[in-house]
Amino acid sequence: MLILTCPCCGVTAEETEFHGGGEAHLTRHGPDSDDDQFHDYLFMRENPRGVHFERWRHVYGCGKWFHAARDTVTLEVFGTYPAQTTEPPQHIREAISARRPGWSWRGLS
Amino acid sequence: MSTRLARGGRLIDRARPVEYRFNGRRLTGFAGDTLASALLGSGQMLMGRSFKYHRPRGPVASGAEEPNALVNLGEGGRFEPNQRATTTELFEGLTATSQNHWPSLDYDVGAVNTALSRFLPAGFYYKTFMSPRPFWKHLYEPFIRKSAGLGKAPTQPDADRYEHFHHFCDVLVVGGGVAGLLAAREAGRAGARVLLMEQTAHWGGRAPVDGDRIDGQAAEDWVRHIVTELEAMENVQLRLRCMGAGVYDHGYALGYERLTDHLPGADGPRHRLWRIRAGRIVTATGAIERPLSFAGNDIPGVMLASAARDYAVNWGVSVGDRVLVVTNNDDAYRTALVLKEAGLDVPAVVDARPEGGGELARRAEAAGIRVLKGKAVAKAKGGKHVTGAVISSQAGEGAMLEEIACDAIAMSGGWSPVVHLWSHCGGKLSWDEAGAMFRPDPDLPPTGADGAGFVIAAGAANGHLMLGETLRDAAEAGARAVSELGATPASPGALPAAEAPEEAPLFPVWMMPQGAGHELRSKAWLDYQNDVKVSDVRLAAQEGYESVEHAKRYTTLGMATDQGKLSNINGLATLAQRLGTEIPKVGTTTFRPPYTPISFGAIAGEARGETFQPIRRTPIQDWHEARGAHFEPVGQWRRPYCYPQGGETHGQAVAREIDATRGSLGLLDASTLGKILVSGPDAPRFMDMLYTNMMSTLKPGKCRYGLMCSENGFLMDDGVVARIDEQTFLCHTTSGGADSVHAHMEEWLQTEWWDWKVHTANVTEQYAQIAVVGPNSRKVLEKLGGIDVSAESFRFMDWKEGVLGGVRTRLFRISFSGELSYELAVPASEGRAVWDALLGAGEEFGATPYGTEALHVMRAEKGFIMIGDETDGTVIPQDLGLDWAISKKKTDYIGKRAQMRSHMADPERWKLVGLETVDGSVLPDGAYAVAEGRNANGQRKVQGRVTSTYHSPTLGRGIAMGLVLHGPDRMGEVLDFPKVDGEVVQAKIVDQIFFDKDGEKQNV
Ligand SMILES: [Zn+2]
Fold it and tell me: Which parts of chain B register pLDDT below 70?
């Protein structure tokens, strides 16, 4: 059972206080997208062994969605950040690079 | 024969005899006994029978690792199967029965399995019972059922109480032996908050039994002193009878405390589950002795050398008058010495090592014990009890050198560190060649949120089996735990000085003798509880089950309630030998919590009966209860299903409620209906994304029925939306869907359209809502007085805010029944008063409260869909003929793109129609309409299914809705619906609106 810190209200709490929401930083594709784009948006998910960006909601707390950067193997949490962003912010990327030198994701590092 | 010795027993109080019953026999033990020590003291070595072959079995161990001595404990509401006699503390009036035998423990019919054992090899379930098919019913299944299962399931509700504790500490120390005590003291002296738990009822672990000395004192005295010191520390908590059950992510751990198992009838909870968050977890869980694999090693009287020693030292019990000791290491000589000192005969120590042992071996010889070097027990002899042992050379194939008469055999195959807790959350192991054991790999611990290891193994659990090393390692572990948490370890004092004899190296022995042939291997047990022998594991390897995880499942090695505590390493070594590889290459199976079985009661804690889950109550719930409503669960609500009167059946009550409503006036508590406010400058735009309809064009004061889909196009909820003002909408949702719909809205607002100015509020419980339904509904509202409800000024799908009967009310003219109908929303605090007022004013109209079933039948009569009946997560609005509620003008809404996918637009998708049985009966719910032909699996093809089905009292016949291939184009066709019993019901495809097609009743 993980421990996460909600970046909205600042509470550090047990996993049971949160609800996982799958992969973060998906781009929504609407009615003007083609079949492949929509298919990928709806069904295709990364499943990395290592650094991963996830959506979480502080469901039994402030109710806000946020993102967590986490290692799926060691369970290390590099940081959490508000969901109102399309990519991991600089300080999160730096925190990951400090622990996983040479790391990169969608051209970011 | 086992018996009570005249002297000794550090844990028992001979002044306090305790009476108990075993298989109906009245026996006596002493306070401080375990059930196992008491039984042995009473001469009862035979305690159970094995799972597969029903072999007679006695205890092999003296603690948590025991595989054989499982009993049914207690009676009635306190009956529990599979309790280990070795960890059950004796108490006055204890009642136990042995398991897995018929008709009696001494004479068991199933033991015939032993004779058949060569026909029951590894994987026999898979091989033997394949065919022929008819044999299953008459031969295989009865046989398996008769012989399968350990113990009996309880039949009565648990009479005890259980609880959970949430606990936070800096350092959790698991294990109260000398290592755990010392690690806890190091951490405690540094000021850390420490929780120390020990699974047994006593501190000190094995050290007091082993007879070594610490700081010039007997280990027992040293333990007493350090416990006193720890008890004086305010930052240290100590718990006996509390097992570290599991270690999980980020320093989470479970402790299982048995509070009153030994004090039946005492106040307070029986078990307590500790839910712990610790900064560091020190696992000082010790080590478990391994059996030796020789033929007949499961005969009652063959046990671990440490167990034989424990029974003598701790409980003053001898396991036999003539105890042969067989070993591959020095530790077992301690047992020989203890037994000799107790006045028992030790005919020999059979040492597999050609060079023999060290200091302890010399002491044994000095005590007059015969020591045989390089020798093996080729075979234990005896049936229900050991009678002797055939001695051979360890290097050979088992040729008899001599036979030694004995009535017990104490064996030691070396020690395995208890690495379970280290491994639960991903800690890795390394193979120690010299010690022939897996030990924690300090470079690969389980890691926490900060990426650092959070488990530290200490002492024997870390592979340090000698007392001096154990103490040094434990002190280091305690200091490391606090320094890793940022505290300063207390200034290192002198390490406690251990006085223990030097031990000679162990010699790995995985089969005794080394060259044993099949005959001997097929009598050498690895897993006692599941009856897995050396020959079974070898056969599995030969048949290609080379992966340890496959071999485990094929043979069931380590899959019994003891989870292979004694058998795993011996099994791995056997597999490795057969595969011609090294043990670390074979690897271990996965260690999973809990360490030993914990009670269901402890897991449930307080969550049972009334406190199982919160129940949501409407403001009118008391009235429903007083009226004798029959309730049904809807989410966490309990809604009245119907209100039976004077001996009515539920069906009769529902019919009466419908007749009264359609004939005059019905009242429904609709407070559970979801009510979500969506407000803000961008609310209209957001509503257009949420619903398939165009909601932005809805005028204030008007209502509109809307559909809500998920992003993959499926219909997820429906309800009436009322526009409050330009920027505010009130969304009604289904009763069960309010919370998930609100979460759905928030998810989209927070994670996709976070720049839109909208906020939402779930106000479901702020309002009581009452549906006033039927031809006289307008009249009763007029009697209450206030809001003008005349037909001209208050039209269908209007809503108004005002005062009604003196209460501030939102009044909606909407209908889910086809009747003239209103819904009143009033502040929750006024709900009961308004309900009572409606009943009073409606008395002259025969106002009749109705429940959810009448609601469902009336909506089905009108062909209205119900989320959860007509939808199941695979249905889109277009399937239900709801195209009229899907905007063609909007460029986007949630689910729109998905509904354009080829499968969603497929004309072959089943569509909603009405179904009318030819004979007027009620179609079975969920029944399928069959089509011509069969599919690839030989099953009848299908062309539709029933989604809702009821008896309509209004029409006096069965009505149904269903999804049917090309349904709307096949009006009048008759379909066949086979029932489970094979009988076929025929039903005609009809329009889904069965009653008042033109809506004349509601347009008045
Ligand atoms: Zn929060």
Answer: 101-103, 107-150
